[in-house]
Amino acid sequence: MTKPDLLLVANLAPRVVDQLDRDFTLHRYCDAEDRAAFLAALPEGVRFIATGGGTGCSRGIIEALPDLEIISSFGVGYDAVDVEAAKEHGVRVTNTPDVLNDCVAEVTLALMLALAHRVPESHAYVRDGRWETEGAMPLTAELTGATVGIIGLGRIGKAIARLAQAFSMRVVYHGRSEQAHQPYQYYADPVAMARDVDWLVVIAPSTPQTRGIVSAEVLHALGSEGRLVNVARGDLVDEQALIDALSGGTIAGAALDVFAQEPHVPEALRTQQNVVLLPHIGSATHKTRAAMGDLVVKNLRAHLRGDPVLTPVV
Ligand code: 8YV
After folding, report:
1. Which end of the chain, C or N, has fewer beta carbons within 10 A?
2. Which segments does the entry list as coiled coil (predicted)?
């Protein structure tokens, strides 16, 4: 039996590609030099796409494949997939939620601990031999007893809240609407929440409503003892306002896993003292990435069998 055709829009991990290769004939758009020519030369009847959360899938690709039925995207965030175009053309979109909750929450707490206790600078201090020559490091901050405001109390936000509580932190949150049955105080206004917290953690999806939600005004409200953590998408934070807030002492520090123009990180951020910077590794463990990859494949296989997909977005 001939295998159905699948367009590989982003180059996924070998574990995923090997599994897909068993059930589908792969067309590696991700490697094509002339992408328009590659699309034009595809056989008729391509019904399947696999892609990555960073690459997504454009309207142009969706409209070049009239028989397309499903886009299976690696990652919980699907902001790079043109979901409107998919909906218009009756194309199903799936993502990889839940399996990464604990990992991203763990990395969030790692960022908070690293920033509070100045772990990167302290590590460099010992390695550079400065402890012997310059004496003790300046005193630092701690999480215990502090208040954290979470922007986006979704699946990952709730996992972060639970870990924060293990550090005896008080948890409050902001989101589109108040969630019944949540024990945490809700703020409808992110500025009002920022004013009341020591830590602001951003873990909301990137949408027209959330882009730039951490504005100069929010940073000002967070204040000179406040710290920002972003593990969502770079565009939720006004990056220039953040650079100004860090250099002017408007806030105490920032710990960031995501940036507006990845992998570019503005020099003004890279040279700040009061930051901890990670290269978008929130879900980047062997265990979690394997589970995410398996879910990409399971969604495609379910659709191929005519079964409901496991984790639909639309
Ligand atoms: C991935 C992420 O690194 O799931 C997400 O939305 O941002 C990360 O887990 C990314 O999607 C990989 O493409």
Report:
1. N
2. none
